[in-house]
Specification:
Layout lengths: L8 E8 L11 H10 E8 L6 H6 L5 H15 L3 E4 L15 E2 L2 E3 L3 E4 L5 E4 L12 H28 L7 H8 L1 H20 L4 E4 L6 E5 L2 E5 L8 E5 L5 E5 L2 H18 L1
Parallel strand pairs: 1-2, 2-3, 3-5, 7-8, 8-10
Antiparallel strand pairs: 1-11, 4-5, 6-7, 9-10, 11-12
């Protein structure tokens, strides 16, 4: 078998959020590669897929952003169940929740049951902003300061690429070292876990804060699928119900391809 061959990966469910189509920072190249190479029975979009807030400020919509939408609909045409749970940046779609548009289902929130029987509440996560007490600083970061960090991130990684270095996230580095930001994250996770616990569920899957995570929060499974602006991550449910975070960088997708190839050879 040719070493250049990269097998398709087949998973049960993929959760992606915070793509932010309509912004310059959306990594459409990596997302399209992910959609083409990961086959999934169910694809759950957890909000902020299209950034209507940014489009209202300035119209930015290159061909690659249309290609993402075409890839999503193409997966649905080939048998993937496509579910859309809108977020705050695409909140206009919340007016049509409960509807189905061809192969696309739109839900205000969604209950997902894994192959292992775990019952997971799926919602974008902006619903918890009102319960988080330290969000004044994050609101500033999420608008002006975060935009500046992403612009610097673009310039820095162009320079790193020129000198042969891999991708490095300035935004993630800053968020992980500023106390108020981490306090916000912890409060957000606690509010999300409390909602799942109150409903008698096993866990919750959300997006919104651009911080991929899988962990136990006082007996509740908390999952955040991350984003396709900075972390380029997806929450993946394998065929046996196991949940994993995949960061779709060059190194990570190469490892996934190697693992998939080993699985194919083992099955043969």
């Amino acid at each position: 078998m040719s070493p250049a061959y990269r097998p398709k990966v087949h998973v049960r469910t993929a959760f992606i959020s915070d793509v932010h189509l309509g912004t310059r920072d959306c990594r459409t190249d990596l997302l399209i590669d992910f959609l083409r190479n990961v086959h999934t029975d169910e694809l759950i979009l957890i909000g902020d897929i299209v950034d209507f807030w940014s489009l209202r400020r300035s119209l930015y919509w290159p061909q690659s952003h249309s290609d993402v939408l075409r890839s999503l609909l193409g997966k649905a045409k080939h048998g993937t169940r496509l579910i859309y749970v809108p977020g705050n940046h695409d909140e206009q779609l919340r007016d049509v929740c409960g509807s189905q548009f061809g192969l696309l289902e739109v839900h205000r929130e969604y209950l997902h049951v894994t192959a292992a029987g775990q019952r997971l509440l799926v919602m974008h996560g902006d619903e918890f902003d009102g319960a988080v007490k330290c969000n004044r600083w994050l609101a500033a970061l999420g608008s002006g300061l975060y935009d500046v960090a992403l612009a610097l991130n673009r310039a820095l990684n162009q320079l790193r690429h020129r000198f042969g270095y891999g991708y490095w996230s300035l935004a993630t580095y800053l968020k992980s070292r500023i106390g108020n930001a981490m306090q916000y994250v912890r409060s957000f996770e606690q509010a999300a876990a409390h909602t799942a616990r109150k409903r008698g569920l096993d866990g919750i899957v959300c997006g919104h804060i651009h911080r991929p995570e899988i962990g136990d929060r006082d007996g509740i499974l908390y999952c955040n699928s991350g984003d396709w602006v900075d972390s380029c991550s997806a929450l993946i449910e394998r065929r046996d119900g196991e949940l994993e975070l995949w960061h779709w960088t060059d190194m990570a997708r190469a490892e996934i391809a190697r693992q998939s190839l080993r699985d194919l050879e083992h099955a043969a």
